[in-house]
Structure formats: C-alpha cells, structure tokens
Amino acid sequence: MTAVLLASVVSCGRPDQLPNAAPTPETVRQIAKEAYIYGFPMVDSYRIQHAYFVDKANPQYKGDWNQPHSIARVFTPEDTTIQTPNSDTPYTMLGADLRAEPLVLTVPPIEAGRYYSLQFIDSYTYNFAYVGSRTTGNGGGKYLLAGPSWKGDKPAGITDVIRSDTDFALVIYRTQLFDPNDIDNVKKIQGGYTVEPLSAFAKKSAATVPAVDFIAPLSPDEQKTSPKFFQILNFILKYAPEVSSEKDLRARFATIGIAPDGDFDPATMSKETLQAVQDGMADAWTEVNTFKKDKLDTGQVTSADLFGTREALKDNYLYRMAAAVLGIYGNTAQEAIYPVLAVDVTGAPLSGAGNYTVRFGPGQLSRRESRCVMGGGDQPG
C-alpha cells in the first residue's frame, strides 16, 4: 500500500515538471528568445557566406570555398551584404571549408608602413585569430588554418597553426590603399595571398568529404520574424561542435528542437507553440533594441566591447547579437575601434537631409599606429 501511495504522489507533479513533458508556451517563448539572441549572428553570417560562396546567381557572389577572392577596389554603397565595410582597405575574402583537412594560407612580405590584416572569424562570429601588421608583422609567412576535427601538430615550413572551433570559417584580408594611384600595388599584394589544402602543401593525397547541401538562407527581413530561422540555426550547428561552456545551453535549446539533429518544424507545431516561438523572437529584438538605446547610444558600451574572442566576450550573447546587427564582422578592439554616431547633440537621429560637423578637441584623436577613417551609412533595420 505504501509503495502504491508513493507512486501516486510522485506521478502527481505538474505536467511541465515531468521529465518528458512538452515545454509550456511560456517556457518555449523564453527559450526561443535565448536561442534567437544566441543564434542571430550565426544565421546572419550564414546568409552572407551563402551569398559570397554558394549562390552563384547572387550579385554579391565572390567564388568557391577555399580560394581567396580579392576585390581590387574600395567598397561602395552598392556593397550591401555587410553593413559597415571599410572604405580604404580593399578586401580579399576566403570562405574556409575545413571539414576534410586544414588549409595553408600564404602571406607575402609587405613593405613596412603598409597596414594589412587577416581576420579569422568562426561560425559563431568570434574573431578567433589575427595575422597582420599588428600581430605578426609584415615579413610574410605560411599559416595553417585547421578545423575542430584536426588534431595534428605544426608541419615543417608552417609559421603557425590557427584553430577554428567550427568547420566553416571566414577570413577577411584587408590591405591598405594609400590613394587611387596605389591600386596596382594593392593588386600585386593581393596576388600574393594564396591558399592550398594541407595535402597539396605536403604533397600527399587529398582528403575528401561529402558535398554539403546548403539550405536557402532567409532575407534580413525574414530573419526577424520567420520561425524558419531556427531550422537554419540547426543546420549551422551541425558544423559547430559543442564547446564545454555551452553544454547546458545547448541542452536547454534541444528541449524545443533546436540542436544539430533537432526536429524543430513550424509546420508541425500547435498554434500556441508557434505563437510562443514568434513572441520569443520579438522579445529578443525588444531586448537588443533596448540595449542599443540605453547602452550603445549613450556610450556606456562601445564597439570595443562587442567584438573579439569567445574568451573576451565571456559568452555574452546579447553583445554578440548587437555586434552583428550594427556591423557584423567588426574588428577586435586591439585591431580597430568603431565609434558610432547615430544622433546629434540634441539626441535627434542623424539624417541624410542634414549637414553635420564632427569636432575633435586637442588630444581626442586616436594615436593608434595606422589610420583614422570616417564613413557613413544607413542605419541597420
């Protein structure tokens, strides 16, 4: 009788507390908000890299994976995929597929006084490494870029090994252009940026992996409201092995089907669950917009706080989302700082219909080694 009574008591808990119970709409809403803030930079980065390296019909297409693609000009307002590109450092883009084997990136010697950098960005949008004038100097070198599955040691002839936490990574090369007459010199430097698989460098047989069936990305507007956002996130997570600091977070996301093998499917959700997901996405935007208004626009938090390594950001996912919204792929503070002017001295938003003067008092200009550049652009929306 005691055993029967005990069993009855144990089974009388609230349904949402049972181990296999479906999460309540309130719980779904909260997890969807957390997962959206966590995943937005990843999904937006996927949209960009799909345009650059997958969709050959996209006007922003650069070329195939694992090949450097140089743009021997400065970016203009027509280059809309990234919100805030630099205007005096012609770009070279490398989309790195590291599933099969590492890549060897060769950087030529570059004359002293010319700034250049290679910014290494993983699928989380963390800046996990730099090569360039500030970090490694202008002497050139060969750098091995490896994915999470590669456990080898530094081969002979390699300057350094750089490891990515994700199977796909982006490397953004920036090469300083002094003036319009300098463009041929920049082109020559860009021509010296080469990339080859480790097997080719070591003169061994190449490793192979199955081709990826990339799913279609959402547009920037669709990313804000479409629950398909989480299906894209699930796809990305297949190539982003779990790190120890995110074990509990990933487990929580999995309770609503957000995981590398997750079954998140808006088409099969109840009306209440789907609404909870959409409300969670809206809650995420409310939080990031409030953060922008209260912290970024007031200068309490700056771009210097938003970009960097996982360790530097300390898994602050709100900062990471804000960084992606305002200017994805921004440099780490030690490499560059990005003061943002969004309002005038009265607090009114800047408008293309107005004329503005920006004044720097004595001692207020940066004394950083390279350069100071000012540019304008549309507000992200």
Automatic annotation (TrEMBL):
Signal peptide: none annotated. InterPro entries: DUF1214_C_sf, DUF1254, DUF1254_sf. Keywords: Viral envelope protein, Virion. Residues 66-197 form the DUF1254 domain. It holds the Pfam family DUF1254. It comes from the Bacteria. Gene3D superfamilies: Domain of unknown function DUF1214, C-terminal domain (2.60.120.600), Domain of unknown function DUF1254 (2.60.40.1610). This is Cell envelope protein. It comes from Mycolicibacterium conceptionense.
